[in-house]
Amino acid sequence: MRILIVDDEPLARSRLRAQLAELGVGEVVGEAGDGADALAKIAALAPEVLLLDIRMPVMDGLELVRHLAGLPQRPAIIFTTAHDEHALAAFEANAIDYLLKPVRASRLREALDRAALFNTARWRALDAVGDAVARTHLSALSKGGLRVVSVREVRYFQADQGYVAVRYPEGELLIEDSLRVLEQEFGSLFLRIHRNTLAALAWITALERDAGGNHFIRVRDVPDSLPVSRRLLGEVRRRLRHLVLP
Q1: Same domain assignment for residues 106 and 167
Q2: Same domain for 183 and 230
Q3: Beta-ladder partners of 2
Q4: End-to-end C-alpha distance for the chain, whole angstroms
Q5: What is the C-alpha separation between 97 and 7, in angstroms, rounded?
Q6: pLDDT at 20
Q7: Tell me, what's the pLDDT at 121?
Q8: How far, in Å, CA of 230 to CA of 80, rounded?
Q9: What value, to the nearest 5°, has the Cα angle with vertex 123 and ends 120 and 126?
Q10: Which of 41, 63, 102, 118 is deepest in the core (most CB within 10 A)?
Q11: Alpha helices in 24-170 (DSSP H)
């Protein structure tokens, strides 16, 4: 991955460069001290990933991302900041991750792994469609407060007893949206495989059949297979035909 480090603090840029060297991940193609400088270097260097600070002079990180929105192949954004109050705004800007300084090497590697997925041709094709989706995140109240989940991280939606369970790698979120409403809003990114289930196209790894002739979908990071109804099988096959499953 081609990485551009954008931060107004030279020491912060040096630290990130050193961590990347230790991790042995990616190639640092340049550095920028503010958003305006970064815009020029993005055009010249074509980075695939931005390690981007938020608070900077001349042009901050959030404004820079707004300028990048129209690019046909914009880089994956990983915010690196000392301030946690911008987290929601960062994810609404379709950031891959939000790392608080001092950045831990393990979190940096995790964020870069996500960026690698974003930069696959398969994910970019879905991203071009996903830009028209109204929401980029889903939220619900829980005992620990408000929980926010990026739509990009959702593996599937499943209706159950008046709620819809939102399954993602770290757990499950219960929301009050109906499955019909979610299908209308996210139909370009999710596939209805059963009357009570929508599966994320980006995370489907296989369509399988058992000895009894029943079909199932396999989804990355989900141990259990998801049943496909006979009524929807033809449409499922048609939609999956256009994807290259891993």
Answers
A1: no
A2: yes
A3: 27
A4: 20
A5: 16
A6: 96
A7: 45
A8: 47
A9: 150
A10: 118
A11: 35-45, 61-68, 87-92, 105-118, 121-130
Among 183, 182, 156, CA closest to 168: 156
| 15 and 109 belong to one structural domain | yes
DSSP state of 74: P
Residue 146's contacts (CB-CB under 8 Å, 6 or more residues apart) are: 139, 140
6 and 115 share one domain = yes
Assess if residue 43 is contained within a domain.
yes
**How high is the pLDDT of residue 122?**
46
Query: Residue 73's pLDDT is what?
Result: 72
Residues in the chain where the model's pLDDT stays below 70:
70-72, 86-93, 118-134, 143-146, 242-246
66-120, pLDDT tens digit by residue? 888 766 678 889 999 887 776 666 556 678 888 999 999 999 998 898 788 766 5
d(CA 33, CA 9) in angstroms, rounded, equals: 7
Sign of CA dihedral 198, 218, 135, 70: negative
Q: The domain containing residue 16 runs over which residues?
A: 2-119
Q: Which residue has the tokens 């630290």?
A: 15
CA distance 241 to 10: 48
Measure the CA–CA gap between 112 and 110, rounded to whole angstroms: 5
| pLDDT at site 240 | 87
Q: Answer whether residue 90 is part of any domain.
A: yes
112-151 burial: b if 16+ Cβ within 10 Å, else e = bebbbebbeeebeebbeebeeeeeeebebeeeeeebebbb
